[in-house]
Every structure is written in structure tokens, then in C-alpha cells.
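Human: Not sure, check this?
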Amino acid sequence: MKNKCNITSIKKPNSSNKTKDQCEMRNILNTHFATTGERLAKSIPATDELFSSYLKCPVRDSFFFNAVTANEIVDQIGIIPENKTYGLYSCPIFLLKLSKCIISPILASIINTSIEHGIFLSKLKIAKIVPIFKSGDPTDPDNYRPISLLSIFNRIFEKVMYTRLIDFIDKNNILFTGQYGFRKNFSTQHALIDIVDRIHKNMDKGEVTCGVFIDLKKAFDTVNHSILLKKLYHYGIRVKALRKENQDLKNQVEQLSKEFKNLSVKIASESNRPTREVEQDRSIQFLSDKYDDFLLSNATIKKELDRLTHRLNEITNNAQRIEKALDDIEAYSYQYNLKVIGVPEISGGESALDTANLCLKLFTKMGANTSINDIDIAHRVPIRNSNVNKPKPIVCKFTRRLAKDALMQVRNEARKIKPSQLGFNIELDEQCDVIRVFEHLTPKAQSLLFEAKKFQSAHNYSYCWAKSNSVYLRQRDGSRAIKIVELDDLKKLSEGSSNTY
């Protein structure tokens, strides 16, 4: 370990005492850095969830390592910066560049042999550690960040492996599309652009955006290597394991075939029966044994299926809770909105300000005490049937809930307003439909209202309406209003059960 920060003293482990001895300080910091990951990993709460439950379908293709060539090593050495810092078991960069044509075939052979046998050179794992002070108490080891300087030959090894791995990963689309770090042609700026774009789209839809940001402490140090290797295998990085597995399977098949043949010949000679007939009998016995194995395997699969079913039920329940929360958020964002239909569009292009002024004129004619400051934004929305020659509906968002509620009290007055009273040609009074004002419902509430109206017609209910993104039914004058939360409520209502207020 190299003291880069000119550390004068450091705290001893589990003690308030400090030491100024350079050798002891190096050992304290080295032990601290080497055990941080293990200590943090032990503090992570255990979970009953298996990491494999989060993995989707495995990658069918397997990664195979193409042999490294001397020319490739020459190219890698050529792009190493002259001022590149190097660790142990290295040589100066300028000397490496001078001898690259001589040393490249040797390095290529070493790397290929290492990959073929699945062994990474132990000396290339040794790093020179430089402690970098972050902030806080300079005597506290926790306030230092280790910088590892590895051998320059390790860098060459990593680069040739990286180029092959990233080609395989990109070809099989393994990386998540939303990952922007450590990828070619991507940066953290792309992540910010993506987030801002999503927020803008949600704002256009009148939706609320919330974000959760997580910073994992010592994430690299706490990686479980056993899980990492299994996940690599899942994603197709299984060269050495696959080669060994195939060879073991081949050896077992050859051994079983040999034993089967010898046993058949022995039985045939002792029973004076043809070898072919004995082999047929043994094959039936073989299938019988395999059937017993199948029954045992089937029981194991059933147990696993039960576990997965239980897990699926948990996920379904969580998804339903999340869906309910999202519905509540969406309903909250809609509670300031009104929907106006039947108001003609201004010819020659209608701006958002024009639409807001039209709404203000309409609301004033209706007798509502509304000002332009009460309107946050007003805009036209597309008609579902584009072939219908009607003006696009207006969605008007208020800055105050009270202003919107006051307008809803006089919403029926909108039917009496003619386009000419809003500044349009008097001829439109006969051509346009009646102007109407409604609650602006979420898509889910709109669908529920549509089904409730069908239920109203089929069961002779007198009233069906929506208020604050909730749907209600009333059978007759004087009876209680029935709140419809979901489609099942309509089914229960037909069976005589209702939720009234």
C-alpha cells in the first residue's frame, strides 16, 4: 500500500488510540479495505427470496472465447496512454510499447492458455492500493477511498475479454435498455434526458411523476460471487462449465453403454438366450427404472410449483396494491379538471390561450364567478372517432378545487349557451350540438361509467352519474346512491348487495 495522502496518524481498530507508525498505518488501512465488503455483506438482512426467481428465460446461446492474436495485443498496447499509472508486476509504458512486436505473441499465448484452462494468473490479481481521503476525520479509515493499481498486463487481459463479452451481450440484448452507465455511446446525460422526457410525457397526460433514487453502499465490494457466477451461466457465460459438463456427460454415457453391453452378454451366456433378446428385456427394465426416477422428479417439481404459485399470489397481491395506488394518484390529478364538449373551434388555429379565454367566456355566461387566474391550462383533446365532424372536446384544469366545484354547481346552465354568445357566427347556433360540461374522468372511471349506464338501462335504474372520479347509481327518487368501485360491484348489485351512502 502506498500513502498518497501523507497520512500522519490513523485510528487503531476497535480503539480510540491512534498510531503514527507508517507500517502499522498501512496494515490498518489494508485490513480495513480488504474486509469492508465482507462486513457490509454480513449486515445485509437475509431474505427467503431466491435470486433465480428474478431471472427471466436464460440465454440459449453460449459465449465462446475466440483466440487472441498477436496483432490484437499490439493494438491494445498501442492505445495505452503514455502516462498510464501501473501497479505491481508491470513495466514502464514506453518500454512496453517499444517491445510490443516481440512481447505480443507471448502475451497472446499466455492469455489463450489461461482462458482454455479457466485459470487467471494469481500475480495479476495483486494490486497496489492508494488511499484517497474523502472528507471528515482524517484519522478514521472509513473516510478513505482505496484506488487499486493493477498490473498493466492485467489491463490488456481485461480489454481483450471485454471486447468479446460486450459483443456477445449486445448480440443477445442482455443489458437493460434503461442502463446508461458503462456502455458505449451512453452516458449519465442520457439517463437525465430519459427521465425529463418521461416527466414531460406524464405532464402532458395530466399525470403525477414520483421518483425513487437509491445509492448502494459499497455495491461492488458486497457482490456475492457465487450468485454472480450462476447469473453469468444463466446469461450464457458458461464456456468452461459447459465444456466440463459435456465431457462428464459423454464419459457417463460411454460407461453406461459399456456396462449395459457387458451385462447383456453375460446374461445371454448364462441363460442360453440370444443377446438381442436379453438387451430388449434390459431396455424394458431400464425404462421401468427411469419411470421410478420420473415419479420422484415429478414430486420435486410439484413442490417447486407450489412454491412458485405461492410466490405468484404474493406478486399478484402486490401488483393489485400498486395498481390501486396508481389509480388513486391518477384520480387525484384529475380532480381539478372539467371536460367541455360542443364549443366550436376557432378557425385558423386555436392556441392554448384562445381555448382558456373561450372557457372563461362560457363559465361567465353560465353565471360562475370564474377568473382567468382560476384556469391553469385548457386544451383540446382528440375525438375517438376521427371521421365525426365535431369540434374537439376541451379539458380545462383549474388552479383551485373550489373554483371547479362551484362551476359544477351550475353545469346545467351550459346547455342554454349558444356559440354566438361566445363570439362565433350565429349560423353555428343551429349547426352545433348543445354545449355540455362534465367531470373529467380517468380512463378507468370512464370505462366503469359506460358499464354502469348499460346496467342502468338493463335494470331500470333512474339515475347514473359520476362525481370526483367515482361512479354512482340510484334506483329511484328518494333512494340511496350506490357507489360503484369496480365491475364486480355491478354483479353484486344485481344479486341484491350494494354499497350505499
